[in-house]
Write a structure and sequence with these properties.
The chain is α+β, with helices and mostly antiparallel strands. It contains nine helices and four strands, in the order ααααββααααβαβ. It is globular.
Length: 215
């Protein structure tokens, strides 16, 4: 969860291509965390096509940065079926399980499914998804072993945490403006529009440094 939150926060707050409205929408959701607010677009209707809702933003974060990059399942087929082949059995134990991995990350970044901008952060793509895109999107796994957080809790918690982080950088008792910058060299190289690294040990040296704006 925190890997997703960190990358989503950096994406909406520090990327050169970030739309300031994304932060405003997430802050509004953090102040009023409800399903209605989560789905609200700035025009005031979930049917509008001009701006992104908190849900649109979070779904795009989950697409680019799925919490689980691969899902592994163990299968064992009954003997004498068309699936009971040498390829699907261990050479050491004919009755052993075969481990199969579903590459969630590959499904989320496939150009044939999401277009040539598959690795770009574009929340507005969630206004109109094709059936193929809906089927390829599975950040919380797929039936029958979906994460129970899929429907509401997981996405809304991500939106809430990012909204709180964004607000924390803007609020201060003095009322003076603070300019924030990222110091990690690997992230700075990505802030133009590249997708951030999802490795667990990535960005261990990340720091945010604030400087007071003097009038």
């Amino acid at each position: 969860m925190w890997r997703v939150v960190l990358r989503g926060f950096l994406q909406v707050r520090f990327f050169i291509t970030a739309d300031p409205e994304w932060c405003s929408v997430l802050k509004a959701f953090a102040e009023s965390p409800s399903k209605k607010q989560f789905e609200w677009r700035p025009e005031g209707t979930v049917l509008s096509t001009g701006s992104a809702s908190a849900k649109d933003i979070v779904m795009e974060i989950l697409r680019l940065y799925p919490p689980t990059r691969r899902v592994f399942r163990a299968y064992r087929w009954q003997e004498n079926t068309r699936y009971s082949t040498a390829e699907n059995r261990s050479t050491e134990d004919p009755k052993s399980y075969k481990i199969i991995a579903a590459d969630i990350e590959a499904c989320h970044l496939n150009n044939d499914i999401w277009g040539l901008d598959a690795k770009a952060f574009r929340p507005l793509r969630w206004h109109h998804l094709s059936q193929e895109q809906n089927e390829a999107f599975m950040p919380f796994g797929a039936r029958p072993f979906e994460c129970p957080a899929k429907a509401q809790f997981g996405p809304q918690m991500i939106g809430l945490l990012i909204g709180i982080l964004v607000s924390a950088l803007e609020d201060n008792d003095s009322g003076a403006k603070i300019n924030w910058r990222v110091t990690d060299k690997d992230i700075v190289q990505c802030l133009s529009n590249a997708r951030l690294d999802m490795a667990r040990d990535a960005y261990g040296t990340l720091e945010l440094i604030g400087s007071w704006e003097v009038n």
